[in-house]
Amino acid sequence: MLMRLSILLLVLSGLANLGFAAWDPSWWMVPAAFAGWYVADMLSGMVHMLMDYYPARLGVGLDRIYFYQGSRESDEYQGLFRASMKRLNPFERLVYDFKNHHPRPHALGRRTMLRQIGSTIVAGSLPISLLLNAACLIWPVPGWFMAGTLSLLIGGTFAQYFHGTLHREQNPWIVGAMRRVGLLMTPAAHQLHHDTLRRDFATNCGWSNNLLNPVFRFVHQRGWLTDKGLEPQG
Ligand SMILES: [Zn+2]
Ligand SMILES: [Zn+2]
Fold it and tell me: Which of 39, 62, 115, 178 could form a disulfide with 111 if both were Cys (CB 3.0 to 4.6 A apart)?
């Protein structure tokens, strides 16, 4: 219920922002929208990098479910999974989800869109979109700024969904169309991340990977992110 309300609010608030943008049209909207799309891609990469290497919570059995050998359909596994998840906050669940998606990438692709983007909407997109509404009511916000921010909001909101589409065979036509024009990355390009877990963390269009790859090498060499964080420890 709360989630449905949040989505409805986000759609209404987004439409209002679109209306504010249309009030002040200019050619600057085009580069601004591309810049917003780039920043959304970079955010997807930065969050992904952090979640992959940030240590999962200890002492709640995450190592047991991560390394579970038997069937994941079994009652035993399902019970262990639910017991562990119950003890995690949404951030810790996200940290686990990112690690779990490396050995089992299709698990992410199987999730419903709501499960993929729900927490992003509640914690990020909705408050930012509402703040933008408020800003437009108080100040004359330029149309190009609105175009850039809307593009960023759309890319940010759907980031985990876009990542999921990279691990699924069947996707809506728009995903294929956006891949063809380069607005979304291809599964082959994303495979570079899964091959090493040390590069190409951005999962929207991948434009920012050239910038983020040296950033990762730097923080990894410094030991700020260590390989121990990649898998849940006991
Ligand atoms: Zn990863
Ligand atoms: Zn992936």
Answer: 115
- Whole-number Å distance, alpha carbon 233 to ligand 2 midpoint, is 21
Please indicate, yes or no, whether the overall pTM of this predicted structure exceeds 0.90: yes
The whole-angstrom separation of Cα 14 and Cα 11 is: 5
Distance 109 CA to ligand 1 centre (A): 14
Q: Long-range contacts: 132-135, Cβ < 8 Å, 24+? A: 132/13, 132/17, 132/20, 133/13, 133/16, 133/17, 133/20
Per-residue pLDDT at 234 exceeds 80: no
43 C-alpha vs ligand 2 centroid, how far in Å? 15
Which ligand is nearest to the Cα of residue 48, counting in written order? 1
Over range 136-148, report the average pLDDT: 95
Closest CA to 160 of 93, 87, 227: 93
> How far is ligand 2, taken at its centre, from the CA of residue 105, in Å?
6
